[in-house]
Description:
single chain; 255 residues; alpha+beta; Arc Repressor Mutant, subunit A; Endonuclease, Chain A; 11 helices; 10 strands; 56% helix; elongated
Amino acid sequence: MLLKQDLIGKIKDYFDLNIYETKVWLALLGKGIASAGEVASISRVPRSRTYDVLESLEKKGFAIVKIGKPVKYIGVKPRIILEKLKNNVRTDADEKMLTLSNIKNTEEFTKLEELYDESINTVKREDISSALTGKSNITNHLREIILNANKEVIICTNVMEIISKIKLFQKTVEQLKKANVDIKFALSGDEKLVKQIETKLDVKIKFVNIDAKFFIVDRTEILFYISKDSDIAIWLNSDFFSQAFAELFDKVIKN
C-alpha cells in the first residue's frame, strides 16, 4: 500500500502524531489486522522501531491488540479517534478554564491588580488611548470598558454585529441593567432583525441608517472601528471627544 507523502504529512498534523506513528496507523487501517512484521513491511517503518510505535499507538487509543497468538493489531476507526480527540480538547479546556478562574482568588493575582492600579493612576488619561487589532482583542476590551460603566452606555452598530456576539451582549446588558446603567441602543441593517434583537435583549433599540460601529461609555471613553469590516478599532479615553460624539448621536436619534 503506497501512500502519498502529502497525505501522510496532513494526517500527521491533524492527529498530532509523529511520522512513524502516522505510517503505522495508516498501515493498520489499510490492512485491517496485522502483525508487527506485516506492519513494518507495509509502512516501511524499520522493524526495530515498529514494536515501540505500535505500543505508543495503543496507549494513545489509535490501535488495539487482538486477543490470541501471534500478537496482532487492529487500527481504530478514524471517526472514533476524532471524537476521542475532541472530547480530550473539551476536557483540557474545562480544566484550563477552571485553573484560570481560580487564579483571581490567589494572593499573587491580588498583587498584580494592585501593581496595575498603582501605576495606572500615575498615567495621564489621554495617554491611555490606543489602537486595538484583532476581533478577540477588541471584543475583550469592549466588554471590559462597558462593564465598568457607571451611568450610561451608547451602542451604535450593525444588527449583524450584535447577532454574531449575541451571548456576549445578552450577559452584558443584563449586568448593566442590574447596575442601573442607562443603555442607548441604535442599530442599522435589517429592521426586522433589529426588532428581534430588541425582544431578545429586552431593551429599547432605535433603528437607524447610520453605517457605523462605535461605543461610548459614560461620555468619557469611546471605542470605534475605523471601517465597516475592519479588525482595527480605536479606543480614546477622552472626555472632550466622547462628549462631542455622544451629543451628535443624541441629535441624530432625536431627528
